[in-house]
Amino acid sequence: EMGSLVGDNSTEARLRQIQFLQTILQTLSKHGSFSKKKRDLIWLKVMQLFKSFLLSDNDKIRRRASSCLHASLLAPSWIVSSTTWKLCFENVLFPLAHEVHETGTDSMRVRTATLLARTCLHNISSLAEHPEFHKLWFRIIGVLAKDIQGGSEILVEAVRSVVVHRSIFVREYHPYHSCF
Predict the structure, then answer these.
(1) What is the C-alpha to C-alpha distance for residues 88 and 44, in angstroms, rounded to an integer?
(2) Rounded to an integer, what distance in angstroms lies between the CA atom of residue 112 and that of residue 124?
(3) Contact assessment for residue 159 and residue 147, using Cβ atoms and an 8 Å cutoff
(4) 23, 33, 86, 159: which is deepest, by most CB within 10 A?
């Protein structure tokens, strides 16, 4: 099916591609025929593809990709390694935040900042296992602070709220909270 979708840049073809990626994720989550490492790599590649669709000029494609990316990053059924989560932040979320910071609206920046923080919080138990979690956390704070510096009042308040609430959670519930 994907072969018939490649090269067709129409909105409907792009939406079918996104649907195909969702099908891949559903298949991966139900079938244990792949090793954990292979599943993690496929999951990460699908997140990267969702991100690329999210940067589309077409609102319909962008909304569908946003919905899929949010659902995939916050799905309770996905348990990926701490290394894969770190790669997801480095290859999907941080580049997305950078792109949205440079070219997006305040509304897009708020949604991206919220997704960044929620993804970290929602997957904190897996992320906390990574030996460089503290570096990742400080980078997340840095990305959020960037939006505070250059945004409107609404953006500043929204990002500040995200930072405060997530910082309280991490300080209270992170097993190594003494470093915070």
Answers:
(1) 6
(2) 18
(3) yes
(4) 159
What is the pTM (predicted TM-score) of this model? 0.79
The half-sphere exposure of 129 on its side-chain side, counting CA atoms within 13 A, is 10
Q: Which amino acid is at 154?
A: I
Residue bearing tokens 């440079």: 102
Q: Which amino acid is at 98?
A: H
pLDDT band at residue 178 under the 50/70/90 scheme: very low
Coil, strand or helix: which one is 154?
helix
The 8 Å CB, 24+ separation contacts for 61-65 are 61/11, 61/14, 61/15, 61/18, 64/15, 64/18, 65/18
Residues whose CB falls within 8 Å of the CB of residue 162, separated by 6 or more in sequence, listed in order? 113, 114, 117, 144
124-138: per-residue pLDDT in tens? 888 888 899 889 888
